Amino acid sequence: MGVCGGIAGDPKGVVILTGLGVSELSVSIPSIAAIKARIRGLSLARARSIAERALACRNATELRALA
């Protein structure tokens, strides 16, 4: 599954997307290095844990505080 757009290029958003099983991201060229670094520094178990908690969030403020 792939995602493009703003959340795919957001270092916090990419954690949640990875935890949800997204395997392809379409990001702008200037964002590639930061997104790769974020993914490399993250275990899949941690990403899944954060994604599970994200699904329980009631609002954007709670969601942003996770990753």
Overview of this protein structure:
There is one protein chain. The protein is 52% helix and 9% strand. The protein has one domain (2-64). The radius of gyration is 11 Å and the shape is globular. It has helices at residues 11-19, 32-40, 44-55, 60-64; strands at residues 2-4, 24-26. Strand 1 (2-4), helix 1 and strand 2 (24-26) form a beta-alpha-beta unit. The model has no long low-confidence stretch (mean pLDDT 90). Helix 1 (11-19) crosses helix 2 and helix 1 crosses helix 3. With 67 residues, it is mainly alpha-helical. The protein has a two-stranded parallel ribbon with strand order 1-2. The longest helix has 12 residues, at 44-55.
> What would you call the shape?
globular
Total number of domains = 1
What oligomeric state do these chains adopt? single chain
Radius of gyration: 11 Å
* Count of DSSP H/I helices: 4
Mean of all residue-level pLDDT scores = 90
Sequence stretches where pLDDT stays below 50 over 5 or more residues: none
Tell me the β content: 5-15%
Could you give the distance between the termini?
A: 21 Å
| Sheet of most strands | 2 strands, parallel
Strand order of the largest sheet: 1-2
Question: Which structural class best describes the helix and strand composition?
Answer: mainly alpha
Please estimate the helix content. 40-55%
Task: Tell me how many strands there are.
Answer: 2
Succession of helices and strands: EHEHHH
